[in-house]
Design goal:
- There is one protein chain.
- It contains 20 helices and 14 strands.
- It has 576 residues and is of the alpha/beta class.
- Among the domains are: 41 residues, no CATH class; 37 residues, no CATH class; 161 residues, 3-Layer(bba) Sandwich (Glucose Oxidase, domain 1).
- Strand 7 and strand 8 form a beta hairpin.
- The longest helix is centred in the middle third of the chain and has 19 residues.
- Bound molecules: FE2/S2 (inorganic) cluster and magnesium ion.
- InterPro entries: Dihydro-acid_dehy_C, DiOHA_6PGluconate_deHydtase_CS, ILV_EDD_C, ILV_EDD_N, IlvD/EDD_N, Sugar_Degrad_Dehydratases.
């Protein structure tokens, strides 16, 4: 075994002529690996969230093979391993409940195994954030290869978008504007290839942020899942991770405060999902980087929406890629980015952006012709949300940016679903729908129910938007004047818990205020007599209990309190 090679972490297992080295190597040889692959070359873990229960990631076994080609070619040893997969559309009560569990599994798998660098294969909403949180707490050289978006949805000659069209069509059915059988027909045309939601939902947003943060090769965010160029990207990522290991390019050298600031500005340009606020806060917490909820508003809200994609705009991810992809969009705001930020490609972000070209300015708009002037993330404060709340102005109705209305309150989402079509529901278009019990502890897991369907009675009047307030999240594919992530959540005894039907609430988006028109004394008195609708003690064992006892509130990213920070990659004790 050559002494002149740099000593990688894997040498502690594979580089020893003793009993422990025998054990580590011998069992691996059962996979058909020859002697000389243990010669000191970089060992690359391919951390795969492939699963048939996560349709957005169902092609990742095949993509992993292309990563392996690149690793072998560059002189590394690729070893693929599975981790928990989180299928956004299949898991209940919400995939978000399990993001931190995935993060724990990734962290411990990376640290415990003799690997020198890792390629994270993920895509569906919670998979990549969970993987990155875990990877950040170990800090090996890390590259992300995303699933890529599925092909544009098609229905009767028109493009339809993941999630966004589902929300639109289901409201049209409830309003009597669309037949149920036509709605059902759209089901097969919407999701017609592997890959993630092809609107600018959470998965596409996060894949673009990964690219903006330099954690992937260029165009990782936009190349369609089934496009041969995604297999090329996987192949090249296999080569790149070997180089990254040789250069000791650890995750923390790429994922810096500057990179996160670039990501936050990217949210505005692309009209990204509100969910990434939680994920970036949690990732920053793992790395010990300072990041506050208010940073999202400060850094993003002066940047207009340029990428005209659903749910804020019109087009879909295929269109974005063919129009030039993320680098072409970032080129428009280059003067607001940290262009010297390094990327795993070896180029700086500035070098990548400088080479970009826009091929379709109806999809990637110019600064003097934006899709919307208001974009990014608004962070609201007030006596209803002392720890903050957020809204996405590009997906909201401008007419409701400033609104005063009477609260119509629902203690649970089931309560709302049971009453939303009731003709006797005391609601009109100016009412503010208030939903409780959907925060991280309350649900538990903070589901994507904040974009409440409108009450049937209001829909029948042709109304398309109302102010909605909750401690829930909403799908990145959703739209409306929806105030989310109210902190503290109702289950934790936040003021949201004591709002009653008939109370008046004022939203002032431009001033970033959300106010319950009650005196401090009245709020305090109601809180003093407030009792939980359902006791938290329902969860007496297992992961649910761990989660409910330890989850942080939304303004801290909903990580588990004991997972914040990093433990590095060192393991000092042997297994036998
Ligand atoms: Fe998986 Fe949208 S459901 S990315
Ligand atoms: Mg989602």
């Amino acid at each position: 075994m050559a002494a002149d090679k740099p000593k990688f972490r894997s040498r502690d297992a594979y580089g020893r002529a003793d009993r422990d080295g025998f054990i580590h190597r011998s069992w691996m040889k059962s996979e058909g690996l020859p002697d000389d692959v243990f010669d000191g070359r970089p060992v690359i873990g391919i951390c795969n969230t492939w699963s048939e229960l996560t349709p957005c990631n169902a092609h990742l076994r095949e993509l992993a093979d292309h990563v392996k080609r690149g690793v072998w070619e560059a002189g590394g040893l690729p070893l693929e391993f599975p981790v928990m997969s989180l299928g956004e559309t299949q898991m209940r009560p919400t995939a978000m409940l399990f993001r931190n569990l995935l993060a724990m599994e990734v962290e411990e798998s990376l640290r415990a195994n003799p690997i020198d660098g890792v390629v994270l294969l993920g895509g569906c909403d919670k998979t990549t954030p969970g993987q990155l949180m875990g990877a950040a707490s170990v800090d090996l050289p890390t590259i992300v290869v995303s699933s890529g978006p599925m092909l544009n949805g098609k229905y009767r000659g028109c493009d339809i978008g993941s999630g966004t069209s589902v929300w639109k069509f289901s409201e049209a059915v409830r309003a009597g504007e669309m037949q149920l059988k036509d709605f059902m027909e759209a089901e097969s045309g919407l999701s017609r290839s592997p890959g993630t939601c092809m609107t600018m939902g959470t998965a596409s947003t996060f894949a673009c942020l990964v690219e903006a943060m330099g954690l992937s090769l260029p165009y990782n965010g936009t190349i369609p899942a089934v496009d041969a160029r995604r297999r090329v990207l996987a192949h090249l990522s296999g080569r790149a991770i070997v180089t990254a290991v040789k250069d000791d390019l650890r995750l923390s050298k790429i994922l810096t405060r500057d990179a996160i600031e670039n990501a936050i500005r990217t949210i505005a340009v692309i009209g990204g999902s509100t969910n990434v606020v939680l994920h970036l806060l949690a990732i920053a917490g793992r790395l010990g980087l300072p990041l506050e909820l208010t940073d999202f508003d400060r850094l993003s809200s002066a940047i207009p929406l340029l990428v005209d994609l659903q749910p804020s705009g019109r087009h879909l991810m295929e269109d974005f890629h063919y129009a030039g992809g993320l680098p072409a969009a970032l080129k428009q705001i280059a003067d607001k980015l940290h262009l010297d930020a390094p990327t795993v490609s070896g180029q700086t972000l500035g070098e990548i952006v400088a080479q970009a070209e826009c091929y379709n300015d109806t999809v990637i708009r110019s600064l003097d012709n934006p899709a919307r002037t208001q974009s990014g993330i608004w962070v609201l404060y007030g006596n209803l949300c002392p720890g903050g709340a957020i809204m996405k102005p590009s997906a909201a109705g401008e007419a409701l940016y400033r609104h005063r209305g009477r609260a119509v309150v629902f203690e649970t989402i089931e309560d709302y679903k049971a009453r939303m079509d009731d003709p006797d529901l005391d609601v009109d278009k100016d009412s503010i729908l208030v939903l409780k019990g959907c925060g991280p502890k309350g649900y538990p897991g903070m589901p994507e129910v904040g974009n409440l369907p409108l009450p049937k009675k209001v829909l029948a009047q042709g109304v398309k938007d109302m102010v909605r307030i909750s401690d829930a999240r909403m799908s990145g594919t959703a739209f409306g004047t929806v105030i989310l992530h109210v902190t503290p959540e109702s289950e934790a005894g936040g003021p949201l818990a004591i709002v009653r039907t008939g109370d008046e609430i004022v939203l002032d988006g431009q001033e970033r205020r959300l106010t319950l028109l009650l005196s401090d004394a009245d709020i305090a008195a109601r809180l003093a007599e407030w009792r939980r609708v359902r006791p938290v003690q329902r969860y007496k064992r297992g992961y649910y209990q761990l989660y409910v006892e330890h989850v942080l509130q939304a303004d801290k990213g909903c990580d588990l309190d004991f997972l914040v920070g990093s433990s590095g990659s060192t393991v000092v004790r042997e297994s036998h």
